[in-house]
Every structure is written in C-alpha cells, then in structure tokens.
C-alpha cells in the first residue's frame, strides 16, 4: 500500500507503526492538537488530531497520502483521550480527499480514552 514518497498522517504514530511506514520509504508525520503541548490546559481531548492541519496537508498539490491514522490512545501523546467529534471531523476531512481513515484502537482500554462528550 505504501510507496516511497508517500506521507501518512496521524495524531501521533505509535513507534512500531512509524517504523513500518519508514521501512516502506514513506514518511510518518504527527499532527497532534496544539493543546497536546499546552501543559496549562485542562482540555479533556489533548489526544485529538489537528483536523485543520490535516485538511491543509491533504489539500497540498501532489499530496500522496494513501491512509490517515488516528491512534486511540497513544503513548507518544501521553495517552490522552480523543473525542468522538474529532474522529468524525477527521473522517469527514479524509472523505473529502478520498483518503481512508484507519482507527488504531490497539490501546483502547476503556471508555475514558474515547470520550463521548464532544
Ligand atoms: C497504539 C498501538 N498501536 C499498535 C500497537 C501494535 O504494535 P505491534 O504490532 O508492534 O505489537 C500497539 C501495541 O501496544 C499500540 O499500543
């Protein structure tokens, strides 16, 4: 599925996911919500993917992205929750660009990690 020069986006890649992408000659780029780096905020969804950044990347001329990931939840992002609204928004952006969205729920261990409120 992946070819050299492809770019895969994710809120944050799990390390072995990234390793598999890089092994294929593709690039793995993390697009975490800017709130994930804000140590002062108590925002409950710091694991969200930055949907605006995703839309901008997929809109770039010559974009070569065969798949987008959202990882729920991911150590790389501090194990922070992702909202259902964010997942829906990511799905809409991917659908707009004809790119499949893959939900990596390997570490989904409880409903608090995929927050129903928002
Ligand atoms: C978020 C996530 N994705 C994927 C995996 C699977 O990794 P692997 O196939 O290397 O066991 C894990 C394993 O813990 C994980 O936590």
Please tell me about this protein's structure:
The chain has 118 residues and is an alpha/beta fold. It has one domain: Aspartate Aminotransferase, domain 2, CATH 3.40.640. The protein is 27% helix and 17% strand. It has helices at 15-23, 51-59, 84-97; strands at residues 7-10, 27-30, 68-71, 82-83, 101-104, 114-115. The strands form 3 sheets. Strands 1-2 form a two-stranded parallel ribbon. α2 packs parallel to α3 (84-97). It starts with 6 loop residues before the first strand and ends with a strand. It binds pyridoxal-5'-phosphate (PLP). Residues 14, 16-17, 71, 74, 104, 106-107 line the site of pyridoxal-5'-phosphate.
The span between the termini is: 33 Å
Structural class: alpha/beta
CATH topology, by name, is Aspartate Aminotransferase, domain 2
Proportion in β-strands: 15-25%
Helix percent band: 25-40%
Radius of gyration: 14 Å
CATH superfamily: Type I PLP-dependent aspartate aminotransferase-like (Major domain)
The CATH architecture name reads 3-Layer(aba) Sandwich
Average pLDDT confidence is: 91
| Tally of helical runs | 3
């Amino acid at each position: 599925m992946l070819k050299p020069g492809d770019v895969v986006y994710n809120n944050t890649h799990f390390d072995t996911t990234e390793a598999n992408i890089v092994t294929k000659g593709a690039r793995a780029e993390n697009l975490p919500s800017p709130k994930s780096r804000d140590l002062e905020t108590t925002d409950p969804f710091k694991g969200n993917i930055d949907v605006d950044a995703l839309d901008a990347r997929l809109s770039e001329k010559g974009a070569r992205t065969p798949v987008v990931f959202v990882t729920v939840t991911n150590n790389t992002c501090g194990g922070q929750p992702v909202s259902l609204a964010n997942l829906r928004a990511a799905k809409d952006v991917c659908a707009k660009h004809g790119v499949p969205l893959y939900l990596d729920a390997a570490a989904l261990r409880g409903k608090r990690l995929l927050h129903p409120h928002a």
